[in-house]
Amino acid sequence: MEKKLPVREYILLDETVSTNNDLKNGLRSGEISPLSVISAKRQSGGRGRLGREFVSPPGGVYFSASYPLTGREKNIPFLTLAAGLAAAEAIEENTDEITAARIKIKWPNDIYIGGKKVCGILTELTSCKSGLAAVVGVGINCAPVRDACPAELADKITSLGEEGISFEKEKLVRTITEKLDTFVYSLGVLDGAPAEFTDAINSRSYLKGKKIAFDNGSQRCEGIAASVLPDGSLLALTDSGSTAIKFGEVVAVGSN
């Protein structure tokens, strides 16, 4: 029997430091429901992976959703990829076929359009009244953000508006959340992703077939990105054989 999707409580803020921080703090104190979604019109201290700043000026979509965990999940890292697929599919619904074909998922947590980053995702674990929860933060550039970013990033980012994609912000937040809820609660991707799920991610892979650089322990390696595996890792083909990359930084050589 298909599991029912949770009834979400949506909270909209004018401005905050970080929606992920707000949700984590609220979950730890018990002041916020474990099924809350917090969105903000602007973040003053948005974060990305590896402690990087995520610039969040007015005009973008910034939100966080929480997922209470049982402790029996086998594949929590897939939550970030699931959020990426949910965001990609939601954005595709507002595009023509040509634009949709340019929307790609860059393992493990970014969405690219035409080779430029438009969305970043950050998943963090936190304690809550029921035990443990995962907090998924999604940040989408909707209006041009080049003026707010460091100069070295200006040619590497884009926005939905610049790509000619129109949307309603509140609807986009709800659509992405509902899609992610479907992946988690109906498809059960945290307990083992079905083949069609990984196929959907691989069909949108930004890195597939590209030469990439990555850290393998203390060694810097290069190879060709092949596919996302059922455990959420990225398979790279190197001169010394195949390697499953489970975490860390991966860049497309000559592109990033």
Description:
The chain is α+β, with helices and mostly antiparallel strands and 256 residues long. The protein is 23% helix and 31% strand. The protein contains five helices and twelve strands. The chain has helices spanning 19-29, 78-92, 97-101, 169-186, 195-203; strands at 9-13, 36-40, 61-69, 103-106, 110-113, 116-128, 131-140, 211-216, 219-228, 234-238, 241-245, 250-252. The chain has a seven-stranded mixed sheet. Strand 4 and strand 5 (110-113) form a beta hairpin. Helix 2 packs across helix 4 (169-186). The mean pLDDT is 88.
Helix/strand-derived category reads: alpha+beta
First-last Cα distance: 44 Å
Q: Helix and strand succession?
A: EHEEHHEEEEHHEEEEE
Shape: globular
Strand portion = 25-35%
Strand order of the largest sheet: 1-2-3-7-6-5-4
How does the major sheet shape up?
7 strands, mixed
Uncertain regions spanning at least 5 consecutive residues? none
Features of the shown structure:
256 residues; 5-stranded antiparallel β-sheet; 7-stranded mixed β-sheet; alpha+beta; 31% strand; single chain
Helix and strand layout, with pairings?
Layout: E1 9-13, H1 19-29, E2 36-40, E3 61-69, H2 78-92, H3 97-101, E4 103-106, E5 110-113, E6 116-128, E7 131-140, H4 169-186, H5 195-203, E8 211-216, E9 219-228, E10 234-238, E11 241-245, E12 250-252
Parallel strand pairs: 1-2
Antiparallel strand pairs: 2-3, 3-7, 4-5, 5-6, 6-7, 8-9, 8-12, 9-10, 10-11
Helix pairs in contact: 2-4
